[in-house]
Amino acid sequence: MSQPTPADVGNAPVVVSNTVGSFAWGVLHDRHPALVERVRRATPYPAEQQHALHALLRETAEGGVIEALDDTEPDAAEWRRWAGGHIGCRWADVPFLWAESYFYRKLLAALGYFAPGPWRGIDPFAPFKRAELMGATVDSELAALDGIPRLPAAQQDTTLLHASLWGNRADLGFRLSAGESGLGERVTGLVVDDTTALWDLLAGQRPGKVCLVADNAGPELLPDLVLADHLLTTDRASCVSLHIKPYPYYISDATTTDVLDCLTRMAAASGRASEIGGRLRQAVTGGRLLLRAYPFACAPLPYLDMPVGLREDFASATLTVMKGDLNYRRLVGDRHWPATTAFSKVTEYFPGPVAALRTLKSDVITGLAPHTQAELEATGSAWRTSGTHALVQVRT
């Protein structure tokens, strides 16, 4: 049976990286080389890995041509299939989503992540994740959870949802305790806000499974876990299926190890944070918090191409919540959609109700009201990519 496709998909060009000065060009041209250097400084990799990193930088430099993964890599055949005709093309000329994903997979190959030996399974991004998770800012954020029970129930819902939305922005975390200014005065960068529709959807039926597709680890994963606890304790969900990555992917993406690190961080805190951490540990052992790590989570493909097993998981959920920018690109398609294209149209293929919680950090956007787009464009700012704006979108 053929997969459903979003309407008018052919009218929206795929994002590529060959326009000098574009966001996608900047990622391949500037961010990836800087990341390689950061990885090199963080961990004392031996000469073999150092040479492989140099080779990766040469391959991905401007004008560089894509080379195939070595056949010794466990998923080399799968990546050849996903590549289609991209091998041998310039990095800048293939779809940005594919190129960015392939870069991270080749980075793991260069570091011997899957190879037999002492460097097998070593997360190259772990030093960054752990440093952020152990930072002093996290202490104050977790302490702020003590004020949440003093809020009215509806404000608790919104506060915890928006804390998950904004991730590790400390000024928009758990700090809306009683007596502070209202949420509407604090959160000014929402370009679409379907918060009420999300909670109404969960209130309109018996508690069922909620799929929460995580994005980043560290301080950004903590509010996702707090939100999962809130869904369980308020009977909005009978269980939460937390989708994480089976291995390190983009620089901060969450894995099982990162979930466990967050639970340990909360357990070491005091007050409400420690209570939530304890409940979540019990939820894991009791089957109410399910960790899922589908291989497709690290595929360079949109959710339109998801395999049957993942589709069935989403179809059985009362709601699937997609966190973060990359999941948004995969959900709607990494294309230059007109900004006013309906979110419901580009997600109509999805097998159940779906919500997106996303801080804007790339060019792709759908579902804007015409007046909102006009106001944003009139600012002259890089509102699509700066992380200063966000959205909550729901398709029932």
UniProtKB/TrEMBL annotation:
<comment type="similarity">
    <text>Belongs to the damage-control phosphatase family. Sugar phosphate phosphatase III subfamily.</text>
</comment>
<keyword id="KW-0378">Hydrolase</keyword>
<dbReference type="GO" id="GO:0016791">
    <property type="term" value="F:phosphatase activity"/>
</dbReference>
<dbReference type="InterPro" id="IPR036075">
    <property type="entry name" value="ARMT-1-like_metal-bd_sf"/>
</dbReference>
<feature type="domain" description="Damage-control phosphatase ARMT1-like metal-binding">
    <location>
        <begin position="28"/>
        <end position="370"/>
    </location>
</feature>
<dbReference type="InterPro" id="IPR039763">
    <property type="entry name" value="ARMT1"/>
</dbReference>
<dbReference type="GO" id="GO:0006974">
    <property type="term" value="P:DNA damage response"/>
</dbReference>
<dbReference type="GO" id="GO:0046872">
    <property type="term" value="F:metal ion binding"/>
</dbReference>
<dbReference type="Pfam" id="PF01937">
    <property type="entry name" value="ARMT1-like_dom"/>
</dbReference>
<dbReference type="InterPro" id="IPR002791">
    <property type="entry name" value="ARMT1-like_metal-bd"/>
</dbReference>
<protein>
    <recommendedName>
        <fullName>Damage-control phosphatase ARMT1-like metal-binding domain-containing protein</fullName>
    </recommendedName>
</protein>
<keyword id="KW-0479">Metal-binding</keyword>
<keyword id="KW-0464">Manganese</keyword>
